[in-house]
Amino acid sequence: MAEFAQYECFRVGIDQKIAHVQLCRPEAMNSMTKAFWLDLPDCLRRIEAESDARVVVISSTGKHFSAGMDLGVFSDPKAVPMSGDPGRIAENLRRIVLQIQDTVTSLEKVRLPVLAAVQGGCIGGALDMVCAADSRYCTQEAYFTIKETELGMTADVGTLQRLPKLMPEGVVRELAYTGRKFGAEEAYRLGFVNAVFDDQDALLAGVMDIAASIAANSPLAVTGCKEMLNFSRDHSVEDSLKYMATWQAGMFRPTDMMKTFQARGQKQAPEYDDLFPVKGLFSD
User: Fold this and answer.
1) ∠114-191-231 over CA atoms, to 5°?
2) Angstrom distance (rounded) from CA 124 to CA 149
3) Residue 30, SS3?
4) pLDDT at residue 131 above 90?
5) Using H for helix, E for strand and C for coil, what is the string for 160-213?
6) DSSP state, residue 69
7) CATH 3.90.226.10 residue spans of the chain
8) pLDDT digit string (tens) for 10-67?
9) Among 53, 109, 241, 282, which residue's CB has the most CB atoms within a 10 Å radius?
10) 204 neighbors 195 (Cβ within 8 angstroms)
11) Percentages helix, strand, coil for the chain, rounded to the nearest 5?
12) Is the Cα dihedral 202, 211, 240, 131 positive or negative?
């Protein structure tokens, strides 16, 4: 897999239209530093704008997926002043939390499906992140925890908002109130993860196979699925159906369907055009 970009907390490669974002600080349990929160949205924007990727896989290195938020994020007095007017301190902290939330939300906003491959511990802020992925997979020894409760705070980056839409609310409340770990078997039984693999090598191979299946489909159809599923999660069935009709009226064209039928008739795999890169209005 050719390297696409190198960041402080993760490395990125693109191969066969799959973008692989791999956390690469195992010596620090892949904790999420200030650089991580700043770089992840930039990374996803670059993948959309500068690559032919049709799906993103997020994995990790070492024993644990991630220990979550690095406490150093909030130790910089320039970024997080702890003295002065209380109202201004609170307003500043609110903006910081919103920025961190936006980093996690970037996984939903990117038009490509995002698959998370988890081994070992997925703790605190890391759970916030994988909750925003399209699908999750893990190893047998993986575990997840809303760690913030045990630390004396309320999780604030997305787990409490997204997890109840992925698992039974009563279970989520228990997990949030207690901060206990839930393992791979429970995560699979409750539908939080799609599949459990024996070890990290099998996990990555399996997730890459799924990513390849996604990448082989029409990218316009796939991004339409993600757009509709995200919208439907947050809106009524009636509103979602209306949006679906409007999307179909504007985006549906028979080109990809004809390519599919022709390829099947010839017993070949269809080849679809890539989506146009996502660039700013005045980008080169």
Assistant:
1) 50
2) 9
3) coil
4) yes
5) HHHHHHCCCHHHHHHHHHHCCEEEHHHHHHCCCCCEEECCHHHHHHHHHHHHHH
6) B
7) 2-215
8) 999 999 999 999 999 999 999 999 999 999 999 999 999 999 999 999 999 999 999 9
9) 53
10) no
11) 50, 15, 35
12) positive
To the question of pTM greater than 0.70 for the whole model, the response is yes
Task: Give yes or no for a contact between 133 and 116, defined as CB atoms under 8 angstroms apart.
Answer: yes
The length of the chain is 284
Residues in contact with 11: Cβ distance below 8 Å, sequence separation at least 6, in sequence order: 3, 5, 21, 22, 24
Cα distance between residue 127 and residue 147, in whole Å: 9
For residues 118 and 60, the answer to whether their CB atoms sit within 8 Å is yes
Residue 284 scores a pLDDT above 80: no
The alpha carbons of the chain give a radius of gyration, in whole angstroms, of: 20
2-215: CATH architecture: Alpha-Beta Complex (3.90)
On whether the CB atoms of residues 274 and 111 are closer than 8 A, the answer is no
Tokens of 263: 């390829």
Fold classified for 219-265: Lyase 2-enoyl-coa Hydratase; Chain  A, domain 2 (1.10.12)
Taking the C-alpha atoms of residue 77 and residue 229, their distance in angstroms, rounded to an integer, is 41
Residue 99 has pLDDT above 60, yes or no: yes
Q: Is the pLDDT of residue 80 over 80?
A: no
Q: Cβ(282)–Cβ(49) under 8 Å?
A: no
